[in-house]
Amino acid sequence: ATTDHDDNAGAPSLAALREQAADCRACPLWKDATQTVFGEGPQHAAVMLVGEQPGDKEDLAGQPFVGPAGQMLDRALRDAGIDRGKVYVTNAVKHFKFVPRGKIRLHQKPTTPEIRACRPWYERELAAVRPALVVAMGATAAQSVLGKITPINKTRGRLIDAAGDSAHPVQVLVTVHPSYLLRLPDEDAKAREYDRFVDDLKIVAKHLK
Ligand code: URA
């Protein structure tokens, strides 16, 4: 039991939630995926980063953001002055959705019913961690976190007051998904968009000081 967080003493521990989520059957994605990829990070992190869903590498490792998008995220966090070990990192959808294409497993975007089915896990993570700030990276995360389809470019880079879990409001910052940066074909655009992503993360860095 902690004394510094008596206000969420009733919330389940992340370890308990992770164990429950391992058996989740709330949507069909568990059938083809290797495992549930639950969030990870300090129980009382001030900042929660939310991505879309685990990719191929994450599905195998059982950890969020450890593949190419994770490397991009790590680099941007470093450039923004953020220690990844101090933030809680999770995904809106916790199973990998893919179609087999020869030897590779091709990522598929989760549907609204899949995003909705997984949202209770995000709500439980929120209740357990109680971050001051949630960073929604990309359209799927923004849809889950804000509860509605949200255009990234109109919304990004500013703090929004959101409902959070039932009891506690949170601030939300919407930004792009690191995979978006990986997909940009043009090197100039890539560099420019990377700098914008780091600028968004610098707003986040202020919450960690
Ligand atoms: N993309 C995501 O949205 N999440 C991951 O964990 C990895 C890639």
TrEMBL record:
Q: Which residues of the full protein are shown?
A: 278 to 486 of 491
The record's similarity note reads: Belongs to the uracil-DNA glycosylase (UDG) superfamily. Type 4 (UDGa) family.
The source's domain of life comes to Bacteria
The Uracil-DNA glycosylase-like domain extends over 38-202
Task: Name it.
Answer: Type-4 uracil-DNA glycosylase
